[in-house]
Structure formats: C-alpha cells, structure tokens
Amino acid sequence: KNEVEQSPQNLTAQEGEFITINCSYSVGISALHWLQQHPGGGIVSLFMLSSGKKKHGRLIATINIQEKHSSLHITASHPRDSAVYICAVPPRAGSYQLTFGKGTKLSVIP
Amino acid sequence: SQTIHQWPATLVQPVGSPLSLECTVEGTSNPNLYWYRQAAGRGLQLLFYSVGIGQISSEVPQNLSASRPQDRQFILSSKKLLLSDSGFYLCAWTLAGGPRLSEQFFGPGTRLTVL
Question: Are the beta carbons of A90 and B101 separated by less than 8 Å?
C-alpha cells in the first residue's frame, strides 16, 4: 500500500510570499492529485499529474517520478489561498481509489 | 460541463434514526462514484465506491450502506445512526477508469450531526 507523507503539516506565510508544499509517496504511481479544501469543507481538484510540471494561475505542481516526490508551489500568496492542501495517490497499480496525505494547513496573513 | 449535487447540505439526526444522503452527477456517463467521510479534524476516509450500476465496493465495514440505482445517482444509507456517524460526507466522481486516469471531482458535502 502506498504511504503518503506531506510536509509541512502547518504553514503560516505573509501575503506575497512564495510557498512550497511537499508530498512523498512510497510506491510507483500512474498519477498524483493535489486537492484544496476550503475552511467551509468544500474540496476542489487543483491538479492531476503523472510527469513534469503543470501550471494554473499562481499555482504550479511538479512531480519527480524517480524520486517519488511532488511539490505544490503558490506564487504571490494571498489570504484567499488559506486552505488545507492535500496530496493523493492510488494505493497500488490498477486501483480505483486514492490514498490521501494528512494535508498541509496553509494560513496566509495580510 | 459536469456538475455534482449533494443533498441535504446539513442534517441533524437523533441516534437510532435512519439516514439517506443522495448524490447525482450531471454531464457525464458511466462515472466512478465515491462516498467519503471526514470526521472533525481528520482526513478523508473512503466509505464506498462504485464503477457501475448496482456495483458497490465497501471499504469500511459499519452500519452504512450504499446503492447506485441509476448511472449517475449514488445513495448512502443507514438503518440506525450512531453517534460516531457524525461528520462531513462527501460524494465524488471520476471518469471511468478511476483516479489513476482522471481527476476526482467532489460535491459540496453534507454535514451530519448525530445527537
């Protein structure tokens, strides 16, 4: 079964700072997901990636398949980015499920 | 475009009462459907998933059940609620093939309090 580790668990940043959240997993995967959970509970899919890098607005996700590691970057952070960011991967090849990391709680202070 | 609906948004139920939560997806066919629960301050726990009508896989044995009577409808039920059933229930979907091939999209959630 895939083990998913996220770091840091909690992160406080000043508005405008560049933010990095890390995710490591133990078993080779076909795709890795980054999710954002808002304070009200709603969850939004940010990225699904299997190689390289993806960018959407101020968010950038990278993955290194050989090192089993992914990073989520937020440029020019804003208080509205305050949320829990969750990394998720399939637990094994062919699975229809996801194994979730424990999440990184980000607070961006004005 | 695809949309996922869940209702009700909030629910307060007494212990021992029945439960029925409904989820429907629009704008896609033959999705994989998922029910998750998130207890207060905890991570997501997969309860059930379905790859087709009438096909339900259970991940956590408990007093909950799920059914998929139509392609884009997923129902979570209980005959008798327990205090430990309190939490935030999320329905989600992916394209056929699951999250190894497709993003997972979540509904707005139902916040259940069992008293």
Answer: no
Which residue does chain A place closest to B103, by CA atoms?
Answer: A48
User: CA geometry: angle at B100 spanning A49 and B88, to 5°?
Assistant: 95
In this model, does residue B61 exceed pLDDT 70? Answer: no
- Cα-Cα-Cα-Cα torsion B55, B65, A94, A104, nearest 10 degrees, comes to 150
Chain A positions touching B59 (Cβ under 8 A) are 97
Q: Where are the beta strands (DSSP E) in chain B?
A: 3-7, 10-13, 19-26, 32-38, 44-52, 55-58, 64-70, 73-78, 87-94, 105-106, 110-114
A43 pLDDT more than 70: yes
A41 and B111 within 8 Å at the Cβ level: the answer is yes
Torsion sign across C-alpha atoms A4, A8, A59, B109: positive
Q: How confident is the model at residue B78 (pLDDT cuts 50, 70, 90)?
A: very high
Q: Given an 8 Å threshold on Cβ–Cβ distance, is B100 in contact with A86?
A: no
Residues of A in contact with B57 (CB under 8 A): 96
pLDDT digits (tens, 9 = 90+) for A13-40: 999 999 999 999 998 888 999 999 999 8
B-chain residues within 8 Å CB-CB of A35? 104, 106
Tell me: cis bond preceding B14? Omega within 30 of 0 counts.
no
Instruction: Give the closest of B46, B51, B90 to A43, CB-based.
Output: B90
Instruction: Give the model's confidence band at A95: pLDDT under 50 very low, under 70 low, under 90 confident, else very high.
Output: confident
pLDDT, mean over chain B:
93
